[in-house]
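Minutes, project check-in

Agenda point 3 was the complex the collaborators sent over. CS summarized: two entities, 450 residues total, and the question is how they sit relative to each other. Sequences were read into the notes so everyone works from the same version.
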Amino acid sequence: MFSYLALFFISGISSVDRNAALHMMFSRPLVLSTIVGLLFGNVYLCFLSGLLIELFGNIDVPVGTKVSKDDTFMSYTMAVLISFDVVQVLSDYLLALLVVIIFVFPVTYVDVLTRKWNQHLLMRYLKYNLYKSPFSIIWKGIMIAFLKGVVLYNLFCLVTMFIVVQIESYMSIEGNITAYIFLMSSFLAGYLMRFLSFKSIHKYVIFVMGLVLGWLVI
Amino acid sequence: MNKGKSFLKSLIFTGNWNYENMQGSGFRLLLEDINKANDLNIDEKQIAKQSEYFNTHPFLVTFILGVWFKEFLKEGQPDYFKKVYSSALAALGDSFFWHSLRPISFIIAALFGLINPIFGVILYLLIFNFFHFSFLYIGFDMGFFMGKEVISWFNRIKFNKWSGYADFITAFLLGLLLSLGLKKYGLETINYYFTATCFLLVGFVIAKKLDVLFSLILVVLACFVMLVTKGG
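CS then shared the predicted structure for the full assembly.
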């Protein structure tokens, strides 16, 4: 019972960390996945799954008014599915990842709605309480972010779980999950290299040096 | 002024983030607190005016607060510098914290996490939050001490170069992480390494052309096809 309550709390606090307050990186896929893995088991696979999603999240950054895709939701759901043994074989993993990527669109859209709701709170505040402290609207914003995490993350997580369980009864192909995670990571590493602001041929040379050193020496 | 309390409030000031005034409500909250703590008796209208549009990098907000108070007490005209510094520090902060510090913290954590995931995660939080908390904590004092010249402090520590240095290290560690991961967790076949190299090169080539999420969908589908046709 305690661990389920902890899971709800984690989903809420990670949403707050991502959207409203703290910004202490509890919401980062690598961190969140590993914490869920620690609570429910399979910490290594959760960690590697977080690694893949974080590679994606590092490229899609929240600059200005841009709302980046909710990689916190992606990693939370994938970690829960792995920890609860819904993901057992490679085809389950790929399917779950695909469903989660599709669900990230509505979840991210709720971020936009949350900001509009905050705007609504602000307009009311400016109209009626301009000379009072804005602490209450800030606190409400944080609570909304918390509820969003608890309700939305877990709801879409359950729906994903249902879809994966339904499909896996028709299709189940075994394979090396970690090998495929690093295949996809290779692809995203290409993206991350282009994303890094250090614009020079040296960037690629140093990357290749890292590759060679990792391969030959360690 | 209670620095600890002020620091904690700066962690929640983005709670009302919205499209109308962005972080304006939060900025006003922080300002009100400092005003009360120091008995500065700033006019209510002046404080209320601070609910207007304000947006900067959340980890550098305390610098702007310091500048605001310094210029308010000195000349009574702090809003111009608030506007100037909010956009300047937004650009500097985004470039360092989101574009560089996050990737480098992640890569270091991922490398150590391959040995022990818990250690990796602790390292991630420590590295990132060391910079996050340090800047938030010293920001007000620095902004208040230097006033409108605070940008010279950023120039003195060569803050705009930090991203370049961090990215340089990230590129090296990313290469290291990739080869370690492929070696430790991948399949020891020529086909596998060839496919991984192709994936990497395709990532390089299409990175600036296609949104990363759509690319990820394509790559998951490609993996599905590979799995169905060739097996795991």
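Noted in discussion: Residues 2-216 of chain A form one domain.
Follow-up: revisit at the next meeting once the mutant set is ready.
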